[in-house]
Amino acid sequence: MRRRPQDKNAPRKPPTAFMLYVKHRRLQSEQLASLPFGERNRILGSEWSNLPADQKAGFFNEAKELRDKYTQLLAEYKKSDAYKDWLASAESTEIQKTKSRGKHKLDPISGSVQPDYKIPIFTHEFLEYNRLREVVLRQLKKQAVQLEEETALLSKHVDNLVNAEAKTKSQLQTYQEQLDNEEQLLKRLHKELVAALGEIVLPHTTVNDPNSKGTERITETSVESFLSQLGQLHKSKQHMDVVNKVIQALNTAIAKKVLKLLI
Fold it and tell me: Where in this chain does the record put each HMG box domain (predicted)?
């Protein structure tokens, strides 16, 4: 990667602890400062490696202070117009260099950017390139087949769910219609029983007190209670005259087709 041109207006990077030590030693020793760069750095590097930690601490602390100050100055500089102008100029320079290096195109198979050059046919590079493309193509075809199979399986599953839902709804509708019919028949039966037995008055008794007094007439809302009381009278053999009267009334209603549901 090419480096951007240096921003001369930006704050200078701070020296490291070792660089501060080098500067310190050069000021201490004129003989050391007069040595060639490579030899001087070799000597100072050895000294720095063997320097005790407590003596290094001062250089590290100074380096940290300089680095913190640099960070603050750099943050302020990046907000300035000078930095924005330099950044725009640097980006423009990079774009021009990219254009000058030649155009690139997108590989339709791998999706990566490829140089715009031609591979001579029947060369090793061409054959290898072609082989890799065939491998990728086979993988894509295999994935396509798998997706088609999964789609067909899911489609079949969805169809089964739709059919099951339709069947359940149909059964539910049938049961609801049957329930509605039964309710209508029950209401008709109650009306016919009231019409047939409306004149009969049952003596009302209880299990705990068979001699208790009271009467009950049949109505559309008390059919169940009336029939239950009638059953108790028949079972206890009490008031059989009333029970026989009920039986006679039912037979008459059936004969006259007043009570049609029991025919």
Answer: 11-78
Q: What is the pTM of this model?
A: 0.38
Question: How far is Cα 24 from Cα 42, in angstroms, rounded to an integer?
Answer: 16
Query: CA 123 to CA 120: how far, in whole Å?
Result: 6
62 CA to centre of own chain: 53
What's the rounded Cα separation, in Å, for the pair 230 and 242? 9
Superfamily of domain 8-82: High mobility group box domain (1.10.30.10)
Quick check: 69 pLDDT over 80? Answer: yes
At which residue do the structure tokens 């100074």 appear?
62
Residue whose structure tokens are 């725009």:
88
14-18, 37-41, 120-124, 236-240: least confidently modelled range: 120-124
4 near 94, Cβ under 8 Å? yes
Tokens 């913190």 correspond to 68
CATH 1.10.30.10 occupies which residues in the chain?
A: 8-82
Write the CA distances from 97 to 5, 71, 88, 93, 101, integer angstroms.
Answer: 12, 31, 14, 6, 6
